[in-house]
Amino acid sequence: MSYYELEQDKAIRQFLKDFPEPTKDNLFILFHSHFIYPDIETEFLNKVAKNAIDVSYDYFISLPKTKRFHFLRALGKLIDSALSLKIWEFQLSRNDAKWYWKGTPTYFLALTHLVEPLESLRHEMGLVKRKHLYEKIVCVEGESELSFIRTMYLTAKYANFDFPVYSYRGKGEIQNLIHFIKEKNRQGIRVLLSYDMDRQSDSFIKNIKKKCVIEKTFGFNQDFESSFPPKILKYSLDSYIKRYTKLKISLNEKDVADLLTQQKPFLKIFSQKYNVKINKVKFGEIMGKIMAGILYQHWNDVFNKPMKAPFNYEIFKFLKYLVT
């Protein structure tokens, strides 16, 4: 944190102490005195500050006093971002750009300095209330889940599934996962986490929650593939075998249902029984395309109605977890 930012924080704390119930004018004087440069785009930034105060004043006053500090820090970052945007509006559209930026072909990379104030703004608003964090990332245990979610979005372009997905490749990678989630926490991004429930899962979740902020978790009773109805699994396996192997395997739903009763990862026992190796990424793509078609026909049944057959399988609970 820079000296300038430390002084701003000091000013906010003193302001909140001096004005327990500030007026709009009090707030404007705070920002005009401590966040707006006296000789750089002053008129523009005064308008930005006034608009922000006018629009958000009632919300600010409704906040608990413990949250007001973070809200004012967020408005400070708004002013920083607005100044950069105003300056770069000119720099990017200047008529003498060819002369001015001569010898600097990557001049536009300076725009990345906007990342810090914008991430800080998002982080501070997350400390005011988590629901203000619009962006989320879903951390999944395996490659199948990642491929499945991405394929659903790419196939049907459902906006509900337009979010990044990260595969942490198993519970053995917990330290890397913790570092990854901490960075997302710093950036003010909501983190969802799914995992397979096994002997390690309790300690796995406990250790992560000690060091990171997780918005919500989802544990598969067995594993991701085992969460599907036998009918969808059979159709997916038939498609995979036909597309990616030369084997002639005749499956029916009962064969698949019997395998699901075993307390082992589904693809592992299937591969052992039928002597076929399943690529999880490709299998996830097939299941994602099939599920996209099901959701197209039965969106309301899955997301807007009480869960009942045939939409009461664990995979549909997982889908609701992802979008709510």
Quickly describe the structure.
By secondary structure, this protein is an alpha/beta fold. It has 14 helices and four strands. It has helices spanning 3-18, 24-34, 42-62, 65-93, 97-100, 115-128, 143-156, 174-187, 201-211, 230-244, 253-260, 266-274, 280-303, 314-323; strands at residues 136-140, 165-167, 190-196, 216-220.
What is the residue-mean pLDDT, rounded to a whole number?
Answer: 92
Q: List low-confidence stretches.
A: none
* Percent of residues in beta strands: 5-15%
C-alpha Rg (nearest Å): 26 Å
The helix content is 55-70%
* Helix-strand sequence: HHHHHHEHEHEHEHHHHH
What's the number of extended β-strand segments?
4
In terms of quaternary structure, the protein is single chain
Number of helices: 14
User: What does the main sheet amount to?
Assistant: 4 strands, parallel
Gross morphology is: elongated
Q: Name the strands of the widest sheet in spatial order.
A: 2-1-3-4
SS-based class: alpha/beta
Q: Separation of termini?
A: 35 Å
> Into how many domains do the coordinates divide?
3
